[in-house]
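Troubleshooting: if your tokenizer reports a length mismatch, compare against these two reference records.
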Amino acid sequence: MITLWTDRFTRAAVPIAEHRAPAWPAAVLAGAFAVVTTWFVLMQHWSFRTGAFDLGIFDQAVHSYAQGHLPVSTIRDPNLILLGDHFHPILILLAPFHRVFPMAETLLVAQALFFAVSVFPIARLASTAFGSRIGLVIGTCYGLSWGLLNAITFDFHEIAFAVPLLAFGLAEYLHGHPGRAVAIAAPLVLVKEDLGMTLAVLGVLIALRPGTRRLGILTAVGGASASLLSVFVIIPAFSAYGNYRYLGKGGLKAPEAALSGDLFTSGKLWLVALILLPTLFLALRSPLVLLLLPTLGWRLGSTYILYWIPTFHYDAVLMPIVFCALIHGLALLRPHLLGRRRRLALPLIATALSITCLTFFLQSAASEGPGRPAEFAAAANRLIDRIPANSTVSTTNTIAPHLTSKADVYLLKSNRPTEWTLAPYDDPQLTYRHADLVIRDHDLLLMHHPAPTLPPLRER
């Protein structure tokens, strides 16, 4: 086994191709994904199928940066600087765009474009290795991979930045340019605190290549150090509690019994199988699969079931890794395919990949479509227009991200004395406080409450 893996590391040092395929087919494919995913996320938002957790929180965070302040969210906790929750300073790059377009849609469009752009290096790399037809099939399967679809259908998250960084970085690594790979992947340490460990594993792979040991060691040490510094120094410095809370409840431990699972369970094995299945397990032929370990490590090491059920955004960062590993694994397989077997193998593999991808797509939430703005959406928009800027509002999860650009938003369950309340009249969390204005539109109630009420955190 050791000899086998050593041989694979040695062969991994050889670029999968000396040239690069023409850019335009991959660019056209990425452009098509950009159009479709942008339309999808906007329609989903306008259909009130996004939420305060997590689009509303991130919209408030980026708005804070756009106003020149540290990121805070009244939805998450008005007394918490969000850098004391997760370390994601890369969000500041969205601030200039949010200042011009101060709305939650800005974040959704940015994420859609990030994911679409990541299709380009994957499709071009596969086209370089196997020809344009097979390359476009693999690029399409990647763009429709369930990890990306889940992230697109579940609001916005900071990991949107990591997806193109990994896709472009690993493509450069497989083209034999480790220096470029490190330069592209280095900003991962600014995306989220755990991604420095992914960078560290990339450094280990580079260190095992002849002639790049020093670069690899520096990358591995730098990535690991960045993660440790974020978890044990930077985040505790910003946290109101003086620690990194995800080492306890809400992280490695479930926050409540209803969300608790076993440390060893078949569900975790199923997650690993689902991650590798879109590549027909051919990704296992490549050492690049080792890049999965940091993210899978903290998720599988937790008893919090939300971290390892394949529903949310957590798997998006793993998709560029497994598809680059797939391409590399197929390239390593080529010398073993001779004559007719070689002519048939890639089309058969491409067909199997397409069938697997289509099956996963049909089972994902994306296959249901983004929804359509209905009477509820029209009524909600009419009442939202009545709420003045710089107000404080209590509302529901799905209405919240439509208000974060103009008001300080709190969820109903927080029971805050806000100036306004907007919610369905039959919402069980709705508390009827004294109001001097009550408007009903469709099934929604808008109430204005006289003082004393919460003042806005900051003006917009």
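Reference record two:
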Amino acid sequence: MAATGLTPSTESPAATKSATGAVQSKKRTRNSSGFVAPNLKKTKSAGGSSLELPVAERATEVGKVYVFGTGDCAQLGLGEDITLRKKPANVAVLNDQNIVDISAGGLHNMALTSEGKLWSWGVNDQKTLARSGDEYVPLPVEGLEDVKVVKVACSDSMTVALTEEGQVYTWGTFRSAEGILGHSKSAEVQEAPSIVSGLEKVVDIATGTDHVLALTSSGRVYSWGNGQQMQLGRRIVSRRMLNGVTPESVGIKGIAKVGAGSYHSFAIDKDGKTLAWGLNTYGQSGDDSAKVELIPTASPIKSLADETIVDIQGGEHHSIALTKDGRIFGFGRSDSHQLGLGYTVEPGVEDDKTSHKKAIRHPTEIKGLPKIKSISIGGNHTLALSEDGDVYAWGFGEMYACGNGEEEDVETPQKVSGQQIQDSRVIKVAGGGQHSVILAVSKKQE
């Protein structure tokens, strides 16, 4: 990454630009998924019966890739001369590559083909692209010729790929508040895809700013990376921070899906109930007490107990949960309208216009949306995909990552439109640090 590792920001998003114009505190991405809690298969073993999740499957519908937002760090993939797109713009070089899925990191992106191959573009300072060549245009990832990928996730300086065989490959590095932490105990920066040993039958992955979650078919969750904000679900002693880069169990079972925010983590159990751990300074981990700044181990989000959750993801300091019936709830930091509620403090609470520490700590339903089938969270903006194939965006607007053509924050969900997608149905969304990526198909071809 172009920016160095940062501690979790408590400043206004508009005040976190570096001298180069990069917004350092917003580099992350979150994954989108139309996940529905699966029917778990009971399998007998010597110790009795257990639950087994189905293997992960690659998406099959092919679309064209479109980007919008700020691209001064190559994240748009439109060439060195195009560093800003206020409305969705087609990444033409990928049009013939049969792209079925996308992932956006802080400053880099991945596109997955129907054949299980990856294309990458964006910042390559820590080898997150797993290839040589021009960063400003998509090119094939190298080193995965003998495997087929079903899902990919991007963090700030790391990329994670899940294969058909349930194996996990990673490349790049983790960062901490002090700088580069390392990819593993043996490599500071991993230039080529490397298999993660000790993990088998993985069915889901998720990434935060500098940590990774993996879910196995037995419903167990493993975490690794930087653990300074308890996002690993275990305590990492500061003088032995490298211990965090080795995957270890979070200690929970019966899980059907994982999700992550920049410095916090989520798990959804087989009944659609949620657990969270990590940084909670704005209530983004689901504890609405202002006194609880860290949640060290996986804990139930009690305020969502009455809902059946099928996906939950986070941005830098806010979180969005998607219910089985297509409603969404927001909680966490709200000063740039990350939650899309139209207000930045709890109703009845006096609004201090000068405060950059505004939060809605209790999960609150976001109104004014059709039935939603998937979500993806950028650093301080949110994307929601409706069942009809429309994208809605809201949150921090200065980087144009909401796709509405305006530089102001977007207070409530607004449908993303543009000449290049006016006759298209969107099938995937991915929110990055300063940009967004969508995958769409032409309605004329349907």
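Descriptive notes for reference record two:
- The chain has a mean pLDDT of 90.
- Residues 40-445 form a domain with the Methylamine Dehydrogenase; Chain H fold (CATH 2.130.10.30).
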